[in-house]
């Protein structure tokens, strides 16, 4: 778990980055010409920077398309690159759960869902990325070994209310784990162009859930 002092030091910066990334597309991760060829090159370059123990699956827009993508042996980076260059993939998703050493994603879907997240202060700052839509981003956490067997059948859950708080219509938190995936930067997004990092795995440690 990221220690409390680190959380305090990074909290304001993280909040600023979320607002910047989802509203203005400015900052160090956005100084790129987003032509199709440049976007494709970015995806290939980013692919090689991702942690090697992250299992990936190619996607078209937001959807995986390989048969048995949830159960197949993880593809090599070379295989993912071939899907991008030769097979029409527009990006890649992170296969969550045991196949990626216990990674769990929390999808914040809307401003009211972001407020709902405040009811879970035990969740530390962590790796995060955004589609570029206001109030929409995901955070990545690692499930401790002691809980993985108990969560082996858990795939995903949507949370729209907690205690006396309720999200706005069509907004929610979604927690994803085994047999689920989350599309990663710099994959194509049909509304905003592409997903972008808020905090990369090079900048911050993945927090323990």
What can you tell me about this protein's structure?
It contains five helices and 15 strands. It is of the alpha+beta class. The radius of gyration is 17 Å and the shape is globular. Helix content is 25%, strand content 26%.
Q: What is shown here, in short?
A:
With 209 residues, this protein is α+β, with helices and mostly antiparallel strands.
Residues in helices, as a percent range: 25-40%
Mean pLDDT: 86
Order of helices and strands: HHEEHEEHEEHEEEEEEEEE
For the report, how would you describe the main beta sheet?
A: 7 strands, mixed
User: How many DSSP E strands?
Assistant: 15
The computed structural class is alpha+beta
How are the SSEs ordered, and which strands pair?
Layout: H1 4-23, H2 36-47, E1 56-60, E2 63-64, H3 77-86, E3 91-95, E4 103-109, H4 111-117, E5 128-130, E6 136-142, H5 145-148, E7 156-159, E8 161-162, E9 165-166, E10 172-176, E11 181-183, E12 188-189, E13 193-194, E14 196-199, E15 207-208
Parallel strand pairs: 6-15
Antiparallel strand pairs: 1-2, 1-3, 3-11, 4-6, 4-10, 5-6, 5-14, 7-10, 8-9, 12-13
Helix pairs in contact: 2-3
Keywords:
four-stranded antiparallel beta sheet, 5 helices, disordered N terminus, 15 strands, 209 residues, seven-stranded mixed beta sheet, alpha+beta
